[in-house]
Design brief:
Largest sheet: 3 strands, antiparallel
Order of helices and strands: EHEEHEHEH
Shape: globular
Number of domains: 1
Structural class: alpha+beta
Radius of gyration: 13 Å
Strand content: 5-15%
Number of helices: 4
Distance between the termini: 23 Å
Bound molecules: iron/sulfur cluster
CATH class: Alpha Beta
Oligomer: single chain
Number of strands: 5
Strand order of the largest sheet: 3-2-5
Helix content: 25-40%
Amino acid sequence: MAFVVTQLCKDCVDTACVEVCPVDCFFQPKEISADTPNMLYISPEECIDCAVCEPECPWEAIYPEEDVPEVFVSDIALNEISDTNRDAFDLAKVKEHEPPSADEVAENKEKYGL
Ligand code: SF4
Ligand code: SF4
């Protein structure tokens, strides 16, 4: 099992999760494309399942693999490409960010029917 970043992160990418991960297993794509959307990816091979990142994500985008909502099931495989195609990724870096409002988080979830 590993933790999974879902598309709730897409275009938010505030990196709050990166700050707390003890093993630096968050990756970002070198190039944004339909196959590698603008979000972070957890390496399932490197994630140690510590669960520290999940409550730190202000967009509530991170789930344990077994709890990923149905609408985001394809994101499990999407995160895996950070291992299988590592050359296409850089280690994610912490950047300045403002936490979203509760309304922004709710609107983002509504896009996916949550
Ligand atoms: S904290 Fe959440 S929304 Fe922000 S970059 Fe990490 S996974 Fe994405
Ligand atoms: S569960 Fe722990 S090791 Fe895995 S991505 Fe989150 S903070 Fe990193």
